[in-house]
UniProtKB/TrEMBL annotation:
Transmembrane segments: none
Swiss-Prot/TrEMBL GO biological process terms: menaquinone biosynthetic process
The name this protein goes by in its record: ABC transporter substrate-binding protein
InterPro entries: Menaquinone_biosynth (IPR003773), MqnD (IPR030869)
MF GO annotations: lyase activity
Amino acid sequence: MQKLTLGHSPDPDDAFMFYALAKNLIDQQGYEFEHILQDIQTLNERATRGELDITAISIHAYAYVSDQYALLPSGASMGDGYGPMLVAREHFSRDEISGKRIAVPGEMTSAFLALQMWLGKPKTDFEYMVVPFDEIFKTVNSGKAEVGLIIHEGQLTFENEGLVCCADLGAWWGEENDGLPLPLGGNVIHKRIAGTERKTI
């Protein structure tokens, strides 16, 4: 049995996506998968080094790893009318946010690329700090950052943390692009694996 490393984040949508594989509920056709749970920025970085056989990554990151990895046709994450959100302890306008320190979940995340597009500025022209996605609420509430760029289940729970939504970048993207969804994440497989095997996997 061939063993393959499979990276994905511990957030609920990835847990749902990979549940059947993790629990051996589907025919794995002679493969054994070692599930590696890490935050998406770490997975993006590991993909740049070609460390994992299969991994979830940000669509933004795929541009940096397409020489090593092929994009799989299933398992994508799309923001259809919603997406990464900018949250704060009080409502800020776009102009105000551009002058605030923003906690972001990683420079290679699709959320961070969408933020730059929404602000109309490259990352060198605004202040931000990278923190794990599950620490953004704490970072904003402690005052270390004034605004947080949230992904995953944080988009559903930010109000429980006493925060307000300043902007939904997925909704903004749809308004700017005739209702098209915002591409956020996908699954990739390393090209060191033969093409016929990749198709089976």
